[in-house]
Specification:
single chain; Rossmann fold
Length: 271
């Protein structure tokens, strides 16, 4: 434990597993008291049981009253909200099957992606920011995605929602920065969450890795490290940023992986 977040109260949404629980665990290790919030109350409670001093709370990000109740719980229980990690997103198998190219996109899938991924983050921010302002400041961290900055043949709703989240982040940073509320966004690449490990074939992982500039794919703990930094005073001069954390996938030309194969075949880096 570094203690750099000692005495601070954090809310992490989508905290029942994956990046959410890894972030909650890291924030707690740095001294914060963490509220693990998730629509799956039982799973959130189970995740919380493994993090000393943390608590869990159910939240439905599509329901404004539920979001307000979570913020009210934090204030009633702990008296403040210092850190908000807007991590939750809708991206289950049922949603993926409907979130296709524009022509074949199920409009209900579009609406749900926007309701959870953008409107939910807006509502969480709406109800946390006044408390942050009254106590002298706070840090909001959003989980966006490479799909929000790059086109793809599918996942239209998911990608569009993440692009909107990136700009929501800038709006919050601009509107409340002078009141010492910071807002930053992580543009996250492919991460080996337990679900990704289980559901992604090795051949797909190999393709993805070929486009990374790092020797390995990312882990939830890699994202959690950035969350903890952005939550801390060490990042006090950073706000309104959209920080890529993707192993360099968005840093290079689309042809990078193909040329790497060509150069390997040629035995030279010259054309």
């Amino acid at each position: 434990m570094t203690g750099r977040l000692e005495g601070r109260i954090a809310i992490v949404t989508g905290a029942a597993g994956g990046i959410g629980v890894a972030s909650a665990r890291r924030l707690a290790a740095d001294g914060a008291t963490v509220i693990l919030a998730d629509i799956d109350a039982k799973a959130a409670e189970g995740a919380s049981s493994g993090i000393a001093g943390s608590v869990s709370h159910a939240v439905d990000l599509t329901d404004e009253a539920s979001v307000k109740a979570l913020a009210d719980f934090a204030i009633e229980r702990f008296g403040r909200i210092d850190i908000l990690h807007n991590n939750a997103a809708i991206q289950n198998d049922a949603q993926r099957q409907k979130d296709l190219d524009v022509v074949n996109l199920d409009v209900a899938a579009w609406d749900l992606a926007m309701a959870v991924n953008v409107r939910g983050a807006m509502l969480m921010s709406k109800y946390a920011i006044p408390h942050m302002i009254s106590q002298g400041g706070g840090s909001i961290i959003h989980s966006a995605s490479g799909f929000g900055v790059q086109g793809e043949s599918t996942l239209t709703a998911y990608g569009s929602s993440k692009a909107a989240l990136i700009h929501l982040n800038r709006m919050i940073a601009t509107q409340y920065g002078k009141q010492n509320v910071r807002s930053n966004c992580m543009v996250i690449g492919f991460v080996l969450t337990p679900l990704a490990v289980e559901s992604t074939p090795d051949v797909v992982k190999d393709i993805l890795l070929s486009h990374h500039l790092t020797p390995e794919l990312g882990a939830p703990e890699d994202i959690a490290n950035l969350v903890a930094f952005l939550a801390s005073d060490e990042s006090k001069f950073i706000t309104g940023a959209a920080i890529p954390i993707d192993g360099g996938v968005t840093a290079h030309q689309p042809s990078y992986a193909d040329f790497q194969k060509l150069f390997a075949q040629m035995g030279s880096g010259k054309l």
